[in-house]
Design goal:
The structure is a homodimer. With about 325 residues, chain A is of the alpha/beta class. Helix content of chain A is about 35%, strand content about 15%. Chain A has helices at about 20-30, 35-40, 45, 65-70, 90-95, 105-120, 125-130, 155-165, 180-185, 195-200, 220-225, 240-250, 290-310; strands spanning about 10, 35, 50-55, 75-80, 100, 145-150, 170, 185-190, 200-205, 230-235, 255-260, 280. Chain A: This is Glyoxylate reductase/hydroxypyruvate reductase.
Chain lengths: ~325, ~325
């Protein structure tokens, strides 16, 4: 048990399906005394005072009032990744606990995932592996129009990549980017999302999940899209109305979809989306590379150490 | 039957698995009297004199001495796509028949295929798809961890127009670009994509995280990537082949993939094409094989036919052929 002098860091588990990656343990143990939820629950009395920080890996452990109440010395919760929709930010703040995410490691890898899905869908890569004798004509990527909904750092990196494919780039965002930023990627601002939806061959959804973006892409939006268009979602499943999507795909309202995110995640095995030929679904590949995941943990460590030392937290929310 | 005034164009078939796409027929019929191989064989005597041009779609019909001898008025063979390795160029030329390929339509779409395969392999997209859609698949995150594309090193073997377009795309992913080619590109061209020339292929193989093979198939490039080359590659590296299957030693590749000599491979081309269904390559988890997607988009295939029409019309009118291919 021990615990010695290093601050206690609570994690869900190590290894297994959703646990901290084994390759990251050494880095964490260098700075913290690692406590898994199992160890915590088996020895609450002893462990509860030791926990000064929590490192969330794929949204676990679940942060609720009960947990927060049982950790009197908790100072900071560090998130792996950039989405914070799984956290009740007000609740956490009410306990005087700080929160941080990991935006820097995330953007390139997620942009790469978005491009991988766009290309795989357009060129019918997955179908090609499954049905090699079928007529598998895809749609052209080079020179096509991509409409990026959400032009934060990930959306912008997608624009940089799309430009190299000579794509025509439209974007829709709460706020407009600076002119130099637009010009650097040749992006045209669409103040109204409808305009983007009507013109795009590929609609790339790259927004955070908020009450405003919940079911942002529904029946109305899909019907505005071209019947030859492809929808790619790398945000959160709930940004797209999944039932409307099933209908749109089955009736040819849109050509195809590629989803790295769904709700729930994963989908139940009998869900219609899993049976449609014109859908690619991937299990939240997002930032799942050796390098990006390690950078996320490095960022989290930096945020946690800053919080514990009373210094400004680099990626505080 | 007719045949009227339009020159006869021989094609393998219309529609079906490897036939001329239905969407292209109107364009061809605007300029030519279309004759399928079936029609030709059923009525050789009448048809043989009408054929002035052949349009090859996916290497068919097969051009051999017998066919060439039976077409006295054949002036030109137009190829769909850019590879000419399926043709005996000297034989065709010996009959006074000209040949043309379709390089312009091909390069962007093939470069896109190369990038699609690179990304799919690196990010384990196909494995992920199976996990996401198959019943009862438990997996740990560590099992599906991919390798980073952004900032990695790509080594492009063959820096023709397709290879160069790959370099342009790779640059946007902040990749470090090495290339190996028979001849070095101009300095401005290298600088525009930030590419470093590797005079020796070994140097490229030792440094690259992704080896992208984009050469024509010639006697010199046959089995260009074999056991020796794969052993020079990093064990974390990925091999992507969008050239021709025979450029890679397939047996050596199977061994390399099974023993971890390289991390993974993505092949849009094999030999034969398609592979027999019991081939080992089809069973390995760390291989993606696609059925020669190359330029298979609605737009690119149509552009190929447009290019072919232009080449054929030039030949029939005694004008310079835009994309003539001469026997080397």
């Amino acid at each position: 048990m021990g615990g010695g002098e290093l601050p206690g860091l609570l994690v869900n588990e190590i290894g297994g399906i959703h646990g901290i990656l084994h390759g990251h343990v050494a880095l964490l143990k260098k700075h913290f005394y690692l406590i898994t939820m199992k160890e915590f629950l088996e020895n609450r009395k002893h462990m509860s005072k030791k926990v000064q920080a929590i490192y969330l890996w794929w949204h676990k452990p679940i942060i609720n009032r009960e947990l927060l109440q049982s950790l009197p010395n908790l100072k900071v919760i560090a998130n792996s990744g950039v989405g914070m929709d799984h956290l009740d930010l007000k609740l956490v703040a009410s306990f005087g606990v700080k929160m941080a995410n990991a935006p820097y490691a995330v953007s390139s890898s997620t942009a790469d995932t978005g491009m991988a899905l766009l290309l795989a869908s357009a060129r019918r890569l997955v179908e090609g592996m499954e049905y090699s004798e079928a007529d598998l004509l895809g749609v052209e990527v080079t020179g096509a129009t991509v409409g990026i909904i959400g032009m934060g750092s990930i959306g912008y990196k997608i624009a940089l990549r799309a430009k190299a494919f000579e794509m025509n780039i439209l974007y829709h965002n709460r706020t407009r980017r600076k002119e130099q930023e637009e010009q650097a990627v040749g992006a045209t601002y669409c103040e109204k999302i409808d305009s983007l939806l009507q013109q795009a061959d590929f609609v790339m959804v790259v927004v955070s999940l908020t009450p405003q973006t919940h079911k942002l892409i529904g029946k109305r939006e899909m019907e505005l899209m071209k019947p030859t268009a492809t929808l790619i979602n790398i945000s959160r499943g709930a940004v797209v109305d999944q039932e409307a999507l099933v209908t749109a795909l089955q009736t040819g309202v849109i050509r195809a979809a590629a989803l790295d995110v769904t709700y729930p995640e994963p989908l139940p095995r009998d869900h219609t989306l899993l049976k449609l030929k014109n859908v690619i679904i991937t299990p939240h590949l997002g930032i799942k590379t050796d390098k990006a995941t390690y950078m996320v943990t490095e960022e989290a460590v930096e945020n946690i150490l800053a919080a514990l030392n009373g210094l400004p937290i680099p990626s505080e929310l």
